[in-house]
Automatic annotation (TrEMBL):
The gene is pagL. Its EC number is 3.1.1.77. Coiled coil: none annotated. This is Lipid A deacylase. It is found in: Cell outer membrane. It comes from Duganella phyllosphaerae.
Length: 181
């Protein structure tokens, strides 16, 4: 059921974003699959490139993009009870800095810090986030192929920056696949 829902959502996102790509409101769409201690996550994103080139040197530069996302997290040890599952939704907005080649192909490195709103409080595997508002930061390495497909590996951390305790944090190792229009 989860896989069918994911496939339908990816197809709908890609078709709708492809239609908007002509206006350059959306430059790319992506899907991330993440895993962490006793948790899984899938995220659909749309991005808009900043079209900037800072610190240009030797065919490389610093640039970035805006990313809007919707994700679903499955907690597999909710309230620290083995086998007790609970899902929650995550809506996020993240500015991301990317160090890349001038032609935007090949290897890149990126980092971003954004804001996220969770549909319910996170309480999984003895970790708890006491607010629905979270900061999500990530670092990643990826590769953009000549056919505009991209693959990446990211480490992501969610925390409320100790606005309210407890603030145990949630961490994911993510695999990203994206297409650039």
């Amino acid at each position: 059921m989860f896989a069918k829902t994911l496939m339908a959502a990816v197809a709908a996102l890609m078709m709708s974003q492809a239609a908007m790509a002509q206006d350059k409101l959306i430059d790319s769409v992506s899907v991330d699959y993440g895993s962490g201690p006793k948790q899984r996550m899938v995220r659909l994103s749309a991005a808009n490139d900043w079209e900037k080139q800072w610190f240009q040197s030797n065919g490389t530069h610093l640039s970035g993009y805006w990313e809007g996302s919707v994700g679903y997290w499955r907690q597999n040890q909710y309230r620290n009870v083995p086998g007790l599952e609970k899902g929650l939704w995550d809506v996020g907005f993240t500015p991301v800095f990317r160090f890349q080649n001038d032609n935007k192909k090949g290897i890149y490195y990126e980092a971003g810090i954004g804001v996220h709103l969770l549909s319910s409080l996170y309480k999984n595997d003895s970790r708890e986030l006491s607010t629905a508002f979270q900061f999500g930061d990530h670092i990643g390495i990826g590769y953009v192929m000549q056919n505009n497909w991209e693959v990446a590996l990211k480490l992501q951390h969610f925390s409320n920056a100790s606005i309210k305790r407890p603030n145990g944090g949630a961490n994911f190792l993510e695999l990203k696949a994206a297409y650039h229009f």
